[in-house]
Amino acid sequence: MEYSFTLLKNTTDIYIIKNFEDCLNINDEHIGCVTNLYYSPYKEVFDEEINKWKAALELVSEVLEKWMKLQIQ
Question: What angle do helix axes 20-38 and 47-72 make, rounded to 10 degrees?
Fold first, then answer.
């Protein structure tokens, strides 16, 4: 996912994410896909990789949620 940033109005050094909803939606879709793999009975071969992806996507989700709270203020 490529994030697009823009300067906050009347500032010179505060950036906000332009395509915020797209970022959240795509990340949620990916979390859903990885969650399906996580509960698959055939995941054993890819277990370590699935866990890494799940943790990374959850971290991105957490960061995006916190960023969203800051942007709303």
Answer: 150
